[in-house]
Design brief:
alpha/beta; Uncharacterised_CoxE; VWA domain-containing protein; vWFA_dom_sf
Amino acid sequence: MTAADPELMQRARQGLYWRLMSALFEQGDAAPNLESLARELAKTTDLPAELLDPKVTVDVLVHRFPKLKPEFSRPLPGFAPPTPEGEAPQPDESPTDLKGTVQRALVVSKLLLNAFGPNTQGTVTAQQYGAWARDVEWLEGALGLPPGSLRQSGGGHGSHGAGPPSGGGGEATRPPIGDDELKAGLAVLEADMIHRMDLREVLKDPVLSERLTPSMALLEQILWDKGNLSGPALQNAKKLIARYVDELSKVLKLQMRQVTSRVSDNRVPPRRIFRNLDMKRTIWKNLTNWDPNERRLYVDRLFYRRTGKKSLPTRLIIIVDQSGSMTSAMVQTTILASIFATLPKVIVHLFAFDTRVIDLTPFVHDPVETLLRTKLGGGNDMRLALDLAAPCIDSPQNTAVVVISDFYDWSDFFSVLRQWKESGCHLIPVGSLHTTGYFSVNPEYAAKFKEIGAPILSGSPKKLIEQIKKVM
């Protein structure tokens, strides 16, 4: 039995991955022989026992054992960056000895165990949550993804207050992972950890609150509990919300870049001045007047460029469901509204509703203040919001109305929206503003909106931006 025995290497790899499965499902006590096998293999191959301990973070591990850092920075099997055109593919780097096989299996196990294992259970402190977020960054890096791609923050900027990534993440080497179950699983874990974390006490400490990584789960928890926050805790909460809003705004502003570019309005005749003269068209249209003998072009008609531009609708009314299931849509809508409010000649109104309605229009330029004034809850009564928004529609043809809800609402709201559309309003119903996780839209109203020519949008905020751009 040699160190390069393929059968021994295969058995060692299988044993270590079986041990990973038992640890992930908290069955270590039921399979103590697998733990013993892992410890013996690590000892035999001179690998540190810390590789087996899920309580030791990857940052700590690579700091204590720098030789392991390249192994954690290597892409996982099947996730290597694509080979540039014209270059030969990289040779197979699969381990060819027992130590390499054990080390690779333990590194993969460490990445998965720290992200999905016992670290996510029990009481969670801010330090533990921050450490878990960093471990997830290492996993994202091994999958060829930038930091934040698998978590709810979606900004891809990694943790805050923890310094630059020490190996996890970095530049993306492939498109975002398509396995929604992996994203959804991490989202559920993160939300559960935050709910178990004593957030009020953490927010009172500026050092601990700085270690928190802004995410949708954390933001939702703050919004649910904001009534119990005051003093330093409230100020630290505002800073966390602002950090998350800034990250998401960068993404949404990139998608909004083209919205302000107006298109020519052919209904407006061109101004007949030299600056607007269309020289190429003038020459082309007068070519029949070319005199070959005199070698002159006689112009009997001048053509000018049209410089009149279509104006944006003067009003954008956004009505959003603020019930608990719509938190993600509420957050992204608030940021979108603040961005639209910066556009010239556009007046933005923002209303949030559950069984009550809040007019957030006075605060629309400040998304942090807007979010802190929302009151997440259950129930839906959209009709209240529509009645409050109705006086804002003074010119239907110049008004766009965006309604964001799951439409599980039994008030008489649809007849009002239908009347608005028939009067000339640009109606844009939206079912959700996120792309991962389960989401349901009332199929009865989905069919009704389709019948009146306003199908419900559902997906990323970019779809909503594109639809508003068409309207504008």
